[in-house]
Amino acid sequence: MDCYLVWFLRIPVLCYLAGLVIGGDSGSLSSGQGVYNSSTTPSNLPWNTYNYCNAPHVNAKHYSLPANASHAKLVYMNAVIRHHKRSPDNLYPEENELNSVPWDCTDFTQYSYGGSGSHVFHETSIPSWHPFLSQIWNGTCDTGQLTKGGFDDATAHGKACWSINEKDIFIRTSTETRTFQVASGVLVGMDPAMAAKSFPVTTQPSPIDSIVPAYSCPAADAIRNAYQSVPAWTDHLDANADLKARLDATLGTANRSDWASWYDHFFDTFTSRTCHGHPLPCNSTGACVSEADAAKVVAIGDWEYDYIWNAAENATAYSQLTFGTSVLSLAQNFKLFRSGGDPYKLRFYVGHDGSMIRLASLLGLGKVAPLRWPALGSEIVMEVWQSKKEKFVRVIHEGTPVVGFEWILLDAFISSLESQVPASIFELCNSS
Ligand SMILES: *[C@@H]1O[C@H](CO)[C@@H](O)[C@H](O)[C@H]1NC(C)=O
Ligand SMILES: *[C@@H]1O[C@H](CO)[C@@H](O)[C@H](O)[C@H]1NC(C)=O
Ligand SMILES: *[C@@H]1O[C@H](CO)[C@@H](O)[C@H](O)[C@H]1NC(C)=O
Ligand SMILES: *[C@@H]1O[C@H](CO)[C@@H](O)[C@H](O)[C@H]1NC(C)=O
Ligand SMILES: *[C@@H]1O[C@H](CO)[C@@H](O)[C@H](O)[C@H]1NC(C)=O
Ligand SMILES: *[C@@H]1O[C@H](CO)[C@@H](O)[C@H](O)[C@H]1NC(C)=O
């Protein structure tokens, strides 16, 4: 077998062998459709079906070589993923009564310790006598905490296609614990020996973290407020007023502006439950959110994500201001590689839904088809291939090469990244 089939990261040979057999049928579905109640996509559905609980990703069985790769070899890549499944980030005003199943995190040890110190881990306790118990579920999970199921999905993600020489990989995460934990799961999936090893992940200080993104940008906020104040946005809130009233009555969320301005919190609190096999919430009088209403919420969630970060008039300006700093760092990586100066072969990022949707939008993936809410474990891989004379980039989204992004000159790809980074982004963010 020609050596171009042997990837520098060793195992993807497996991918390559599979790749010769040829990859995937399209699993694309329209908004709101897909799997929302299990990390395992049922075998009667295409492998790359949208699965909110555990997105499809590059894997040995369905990896395909680029059509143009006959004289090219893979030489470099950057990959960005969202963390895997977790407990809800948002709480209902009367959270306790809206969980018939406690949230159990005792099956996953939460280590956090200082360098040479004892291996301290923390266990969350929610005592029944706590005066504020009504505001939280019963059990042993904090909010937004990676679960054992999420960790297992991260490990499977790392196992799916990758193998590493640990010296070849650079990992960047946000400052959220769940992103470190996902990195640790991915690493051990790539190489079980990593379980016994320490490995650095790089973060930025939370006030200026580019990956969430967390840096303040009042000009971007103003742009977004403007396009969420026009009928193109407000019409969908008006059209779904009945749904909202039903949800509010059952969940006690009326008059809460953060539950009224969009469907984000309903989406999070429903899907976090269903992805973990918990039922949709039922209140103390026995009334439950219906499957039909939950289905409406997830479809609206897809629409909102596409509108805010991709489709709205000025969405590009908003995404550029809020994610330009991350895109700048990607552009720097590819330039460093081009100049022969990148010591790493794989730069791997673990971020959030907000990272994935902005990157997808700024890469132009939303011009191919409307974007959906980035699923847990969502993945964008940017491969660099060296042909006889030129270097090319291929972009793979949720395990499937993106139409129109299969073979782009590296120089053109870098220019396209740079074109999404506003000049003087700091000044622009803080201009009125
Ligand atoms: C998940 O939802 C689908 C569609 O609503 C349903 O057919 C399936 O039985 C559910 N699976 C689980 C594990 O609850
Ligand atoms: C890539 O392959 C396509 C289809 O075979 C061909 O039309 C195109 O010219 C190739 N591009 C390059 C840069 O080799
Ligand atoms: C939650 O804990 C409270 C206090 O111990 C108890 O009254 C309630 O029944 C528990 N709920 C569930 C669903 O276990
Ligand atoms: C988009 O930005 C332009 C220029 O600032 C502004 O005139 C227009 O009203 C904005 N559109 C929306 C929908 O906010
Ligand atoms: C439970 O939901 C029903 C139906 O939406 C509603 O009428 C009732 O007031 C709710 N009860 C509580 C305690 O929130
Ligand atoms: C919401 O506000 C309306 C009008 O101010 C009031 O009648 C209603 O009781 C409030 N509902 C809740 C759940 O606080």
TrEMBL record:
Q: Name one GO molecular function term.
A: phosphatase activity
Q: Which UniProt keywords apply?
A: Signal
Q: Is Transmembrane found in the keyword set?
A: no
Identify the domain of life.
Eukaryota
Entry-linked Pfam families: His_Phos_2
**InterPro entries, sorted:** His_Pase_clade-2, His_PPase_superfam, Histidine_acid_phosphatase
Q: Which family does it belong to?
A: Belongs to the histidine acid phosphatase family.
Full protein name: Phosphoglycerate mutase-like protein
Starting at the broadest rank, the lineage of the source organism is: Eukaryota, Fungi, Dikarya, Basidiomycota, Agaricomycotina
